[in-house]
Amino acid sequence: MKPIAKLETAFGSSMWIFAVVLLALICFLPQEIYEMHSGVLFSPPLLWIACLGARQRSLKFLWEGTHRGLWLALGALGLSCTAALDRNTAWTAYVSVALPFAGYYFLGYFLWKEGFDRARIFIGIWVAFAALIALIGVVEWLVGSNLIYERWVGSSYYERYVSLATFPRPLSTQSHPPILASFLLGCLPFALWFYETVKKPCRPLALLAISLMVTGILLAGSRGGFLSACVAVLVYLWHRNRRAFWITLGVVLLMPFVLYTEGPPVGFYRFGTRHLIHGGYDSVVSPYRMLRLILVGRVLLFSPVLGLGLTHLRLRFFEFFPSSMPVTHEFMIADNMYLTVLAETGLVGFIFFYGFVFRLVWRAYRRIRSKEPLEDRGLGLAAWAALLGLLVNMGGYDLLYWHNPWMLLAILCGMLRAFVPARVSIDATH
């Protein structure tokens, strides 16, 4: 082998190692690390894009028509900064949102384009990382302690949900229980796919990973995370195993009635009918949600095209909040990513960003349902189900400003963009 060929082979292998490192960052670094050290947030995705450019000896791939939707979406989000009162704050927030999203999008795209066999190995590592995150959460729940937040990273959420809580809700490596549930549900469909495709001797390990993830989601006590995980799993099973789908659906429908009361097991009543949809202060049907819906409606009347600017819903919260009740800084939000994007980036940002995402969802669905033989159909289904789960989960919190699930969303978008060819002509009738 010629020296140049050897060098290219070594560089390609090192890129796969770097890809695993990038995945490890979003799996194991809490939100607080990104906030304290911005270089950890910006440097890895920038370096990844630079490595891709070096490998292809050009950065022209960034501007290919294939990725036009990505740049239009991110550009539309950035336009809102021109309407912000504090433009420096808005632009800082924009860079912290757009740059990692672009970098991790191209990570997902690269993984898929490099071939099914290599992608399969990467997914196995991904499932192992997610299982470890869940295991840390389970241990945290059992012992009521997490060394990450006791020794290395300070977190007020840790005191509230773990160290001082009657019923602990683990944070694991994700800084907040709902974020832990959100991240795990975005990984769960890949664990289901991995269980299906590995050799039988390895299936107990895959089943253990699935069990740990499900347990972690339940212990996190996030109703939005629970419902979204149900959507992701049921969507996947509907296309792969109808018998398992009906069994899972029966368990999901029965569970809220079994957990109707606030009796034992303590804490799981949040998944009962009394609190899952209504009854809690921030349930789907609650004054908390209604006030924020009215809040965003008022913002739209004030600035419908470009919104208030990124992070400005919190900065200008009381100008539009339809109540005189006191609200702490933590809850000066829409607590719903769809509403947040609408309020802070206006109709322009909302239409272009969600147009990009939902176009990927629709085109991936058509390809999954096509009759053509596809080696990567199952993996494409897993990525599609995971993205659908996150899209449902966005209705329960501001995913936009939580870096790890935001970057996970970017990976899934990149994977699906590679899964769907540039031009699709598919018979989706079967």
Give the oligomer, counting copies of the same chain as homo and different chains as hetero.
Answer: single chain
What is the residue-averaged pLDDT? 87
**Helical percentage:** 55-70%
Low-confidence stretches: 424-430
Number of separate helices: 19
Largest sheet: none
Give the terminus-to-terminus CA distance: 48 Å
Secondary-structure element series: HHHHHHHHHHHHHHHHHHH
Class by SSE composition: mainly alpha
- The proportion of residues in beta strands is under 5%
Which geometry do the CA atoms define?
A: globular
Number of strands: 0
Rounded Rg: 22 Å
Kindly list the characteristics that best describe this protein.
430 residues, mainly alpha
Commentary on this structure:
Helix 1 (3-28) packs parallel to helix 6 and helix 9 (177-197) packs parallel to helix 11. This protein is 70% helix and 0% strand. It has 430 residues and is mainly alpha-helical. The chain contains 19 helices and no strands. It has helices at 3-28, 31-36, 38-56, 68-79, 87-113, 116-143, 147-152, 156-163, 177-197, 203-220, 223-240, 242-258, 273-276, 287-302, 312-315, 317-320, 337-368, 377-393, 403-419.
Task: Indicate the topology.
Elements: H1 3-28, H2 31-36, H3 38-56, H4 68-79, H5 87-113, H6 116-143, H7 147-152, H8 156-163, H9 177-197, H10 203-220, H11 223-240, H12 242-258, H13 273-276, H14 287-302, H15 312-315, H16 317-320, H17 337-368, H18 377-393, H19 403-419
How do you describe this structure in short?
The chain has 430 residues and is mainly alpha-helical. The chain has helices at residues 3-28, 31-36, 38-56, 68-79, 87-113, 116-143, 147-152, 156-163, 177-197, 203-220, 223-240, 242-258, 273-276, 287-302, 312-315, 317-320, 337-368, 377-393, 403-419.
